[in-house]
What we know:
The protein is α/β, with parallel strands linked by helices and about 325 residues long. The protein has 2 domains: about 15-235 and about 310-330, Rossmann fold, CATH 3.40.50; about 240-285. The protein contains 14 helices and 8 strands. GO terms for molecular function: ATP binding; ATP hydrolysis activity.
Amino acid sequence: MESRDTDWDGVRLHVVTGKGGTGKTTVAAALALALAAGGRKVLLVEVEGRQGIAQIFDLPPLPYEERKIAVAPSGGDVYALSVDPEEAMLDYLEMFYGMRRAGRALTKMGVVDFATTVAPGFRDVLVTGKTTEAVRRRGKNGKRVYDAVVLDAPPTGRITRFLNVTQEVAGLARVGPIKNHSDLVSGVVKSPETAVHFVTLLEEMPVQETLDGIAELREAGLPAGGVFINMVRESQLPRTALDKAVKGGFDVTELALGLKAAGLADGADADAVAEALAGEVVEYAHRAVLEHEEREALSEAALPRYELPLLADGVDLAGLYELAESIRTQGAA
């Protein structure tokens, strides 16, 4: 197994959250590949029932079982699990009451749906419980089954409530198996073995939601991890040109002369093309300034930040491995 230093040495549960549309599931998948590189075994878990992992890895829908889905760079395996609350309930009944068969009868009666609707915190205990069990699990040789677990968690606006299971079930059960189970889950989630990472774009709403989520997480005593800035565009122009464009000092005449000299346009066409290009440069420059401001805002969170490139061809399997390599290069795995 390859040894390496990372920003998250000792962390075994990586929870990934983010505002919808930021690429949360993609980053979770890339992080799992990065963590598995060099001969490790990593479990990637999803809990929202969207089959996002299967789509990213171009696989059929995942069943409620852990199965190998990818080989990481330099060896290492990524397994995946799509948690189904109903099946997690059956596991729970078997674990604490030995009632799996009776549990199946209850699910047919709709009792599980009723219970998780009346007490939604209990549903979160079921799915997080399955994840933290994988973190704690050991094989017959006494070693951990997985070197790390990556949880593709609910969006930022719900993450603190989702993870704060002890608080969520406090009104449901103060003693007994449910309370004990939630305490067990909380013991993992609030430990140094866990880090909650945020995925964002360099846009105002995702950045603000990220900052709000980090603040809520800290207030609840949950461990904030890093910030993954996704879909970052590489700068196409030097800083001096951007500054001129923002200040309205971009020289259209000079651009037209350059187009003529390069043989890309001639006469009136050069002037028209230069005018159009200048408008795009100004628009691009203003966007670059806004992105710089959002980076500054994220720095206030005082968390490690990682920038992942915008992939021109979209996120296919090759792109996923490219993102994983970027994550490793920046020391996040």
